[in-house]
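Methods — Computational structure assignment.
A single polypeptide chain was analysed. Its primary sequence is given first, followed by the predicted tertiary structure written as structure tokens.
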Amino acid sequence: MPFVEKGMTVGLFGGSFNPPHAGHALVAEISLRRLQLDQLWWIVTPGNPLKDTRHLAPLAERLKLCEQQVHDPRIKVTAFEAAYNVRYTADTLALIKARNPGVHFVWIMGADNLADFHRWQRWQKIAMTFPIAVIDRPGSTLAFLSSRMAKTFDYARFDEDDAPLLARAPAPAWTFIHGPRSSLSSTAIRNGAVKRQK
């Protein structure tokens, strides 16, 4: 787990990143800037319980490719979930919270994940653990209005102009951040439809 100090604001950007691409790097960059974070942890997961793992590249390979996408020293690429044998996001966030008292974390995800967020194990627990920043993705802009998560936690939504306040807000709290969008997707890259950009 990367080193942090009390009082810091840290974004948590997790995924299988199979493979990582410039779209992921864009989400990380937007998050750092709009949320005014001290750090962003790019968390490479051993595997996603909701996805087919037959075409999942080895963790070490995905970790290396993620590091090649990073050009900001505030971004820390990590795969600590494997060391702790953690499989679900709710467990990952509970572990992070227990080991880092006094640090302000915010969970970061692309809007393409928002529509299915209610399928994640203990999704409401995730929303009650840390604030959430949803970053716009092509074709997913309206998810923040129609998703089950958005409807359930409508009362806890921050205006995106207040995004810098999100990390220090008590959960549940979330915002949807509009901005530049990349049409790249890991699935399309794996299928050979597009080439990964560096």
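Note: The mean pLDDT is 88.
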